[in-house]
Design a protein that fits this description.
mainly alpha, disordered N terminus
Length: 253
Amino acid sequence: MILAILGAVVAAVLFWIFVPGPVDEILGRVAPIALEPVASRQFGGFLLAITLGAGGIAMSLPLGILLALGRQSDMFLIKTFSVMFIEFIRGVPLITLLFVASLLLNYFLPPGTNFDIILRVMILVTLFSAAYIAEVIRGGLAALPRGQYEAADALGLDYWKAQRLVILPQALKISIPGIVSTFIGMFKDTTLVTFVGLFEPLKSIPDSIRADISWKGTYWEHFIFVGAIFFILNFSMSRYSMYLERKLKRDHR
């Protein structure tokens, strides 16, 4: 079920990227229902945070796996690219990448290209998270005993079969706590999109409440509400990771 949801998110994002035409026209052709299109600047709140978080999680995990494998590759170009990408992304603050997505990315695109701000932010958040996940998974790969690699070679498996059937299942199992911690941190960092003009929960909810005269003088209740929602979602991810650890029996007892 989880894999199906993540696959649907990835498919939707890829469709959004590669199918030409404005978003509202595309959605009108695919699902002609009576819904009004919402501009990116009016799309916000927890729906924006969950969209960025779910999309980032779905796309950063496979990208992080490829970067981790690339960093351990014997091929010079692949290893060099993976190391440079990971170290550059990990050495630059996320807020800097968000400003690049908001202000500078359009300068490198062909004239007249309409690259949606939410999609640009999602791409940069995904790349940022993938760099950290790659290091977490690299730690899991390094934790495996050398005998596992030798056993895969003894079975006559090629590189990709050995990774898919022997190495990665064990490395990912070891890396579950670090991967989930990265996901939680990424989901909390979605609040930084307020600096590029998007209305994340900490901006949209308090501003809409303070605009009502009935809530004049009330400042802290809505921040407690937003914090409680973030706690519930992040705590749920943490509990689910612990369930996976118990189910997969990481300690081999």
